[in-house]
Amino acid sequence: MATSIVMPKLGMTMTEGTVEEWLKQPGDTVKEGEGIVTISSDKLTSEVEAPADGVLLKIIKDVTEEATVGEPIGIVGQDGEEVGEAVSNVEETKTEQEPEVHQETIQQSELNQKMDGPQRKKRISPAARKKAKALAIDISNITGTGPKGRITRRDIEQAAKQQAAATIMEEQTVEKQTAQEKATHVTGLSSMRKSIATNMQQSLANTAQLTLHRKADITDLLVFQNKMRAEAAENGLDIKLTLTVFLARAVTLSLQQHPEVNTHLIDEQLHQYDVVHLGIATSLENGLVVPVVKHAERLPLGSLAEQIKLVTESAREGKNVELNGATFTISNLGAQGVEYFTPILNPPESGILGVGTFIKEFALGENEAVKQKISLPLSLTFDHRVLDGAPAAAFLNTIAHYLANPYLLLL
Fold first, then answer.
1. Which residue ranges make up each domain of the chain?
2. 43 pLDDT band (50/70/90 cuts)?
3. Beta partners for 292?
């Protein structure tokens, strides 16, 4: 009688998997417990074993196709069995078994008795049984991930790793307890810190981050900044022309020249934007937020300064401010004396610019005369899934060019 090969559940959060390779083709003879197909989830790859002796009658899900957990991906049956009849048998078996799943909702005490009773028999492939014996693994506490809960060789290998890890943890218990006893103050994570921790961990886990570093000559920019401040004061304008304002303008102009950086990767699709919504990383007493300046590409230098001041001050005062929708972010740690660092992406953004503190340097000028210049360290983190190194470097060089030629920022 035909038996379906179903997509197994490789992890607690797995809901679907992808067929990577069929190890057998329709018509090939298979034996129960023999590897028949390789599947993968977003994190794991596993070999699915044949649920019964016979032949592979039909491949339902071909290579690269996805299936939900428990969904049939192929059919094993007897040689000569009609595929149509086999499919009907599988569907009938599935229908007959569905009510049994609901009937297995029993009391926890009854479940424990069933689990502990000698009558319970574990389904395990021959290869897995041999592996368990070699590694001295007790299969009674292993939950199989194969068809119908069958224990696979991968399950045994995973159990061996967990057993080894448990031994190491046990040996380190005394040392860890001693370290914990030395703590003078223990507190739980605030909701903001939990959110930051989750976002940063997911960012590093789910993106391919790479950071490029370079310096920008801002000698003329600082002179330009002082001149602009003086003119603003003479005209009675209350404009806060900080270095972040000039950086924001340089980044905005550079993003318009390099739109591939102003891109989000969402559901395996690239979303490129003409608008520039700038996130300004802002430090708070107990955490960090990233308020957003919307449509920075529409704002001249003075208006950009006003908006940056508005959103950052509102964030620090706990007022309602837009914290979502940025297409690119700037993080400035110059005030903390940091030179270079590796800022972490704020997904789904593909880039974030880290800014360090001023560095006074000596350089050769015209006629090889020694002159002093002021450099600004820049650190660009980008998502290598979206960008390669060359276009990312070109974008960073464009930012440096604008900073070295500040009058271009007025365009």
1. 1-105, 111-174, 202-410
2. low
3. 279
- Measured from the Cβ of residue 103, the count of other Cβ atoms closer than 10 Å reads 7
Q: Are 77 and 3 in contact (CB under 8 A)?
A: yes
* Alpha carbon distance, N-terminus to C-terminus of the chain: 76
The pTM of the full predicted model, rounded to 2 decimals, is 0.57
| DSSP state at residue 23 | S
**Listed range (115-119, 178-182, 210-214, 239-243) with the worst mean pLDDT:** 115-119
Decide the pairing of beta strands 328-332 and 351-355. parallel
Give me the phi and psi of 219, to 5 degrees please.
Answer: -55, -50
Q: What is the DSSP letter of 347?
A: T
Phi, psi of 73 (to 5 degrees): -120, -10
CA distance 69 to 364: 66
Residue with tokens 């604008």: 402
3-state secondary structure of 116: helix
* Angle CA 253–334–369, to nearest 5: 80
Rounded to an integer, the average pLDDT of 386-405 is 98
Is the previous residue joined to 72 through a cis bond, with omega within 30 degrees of 0?
no
Cα(339)–Cα(322) distance, rounded to whole angstroms? Answer: 29
Catalytic residues: 384, 388
Q: What is the pLDDT of residues 262-303, one digit of tens each?
A: 999 999 899 999 999 999 999 988 889 999 999 999 999 999
> In the beta sheet, which residues pair with residue 200?
none
For the domain made up of 1-105, give the CATH fold. Answer: OB fold (Dihydrolipoamide Acetyltransferase, E2P) (2.40.50)
Return the CATH architecture of domain 111-174. Irregular (4.10)
Provide the sign of the torsion angle of the four alpha carbons 355, 359, 364, 365, taken in this order: positive
CATH of 202-410, one of 3.60.15.10, 3.60.10.10, 3.20.20.105, 3.30.559.10: 3.30.559.10
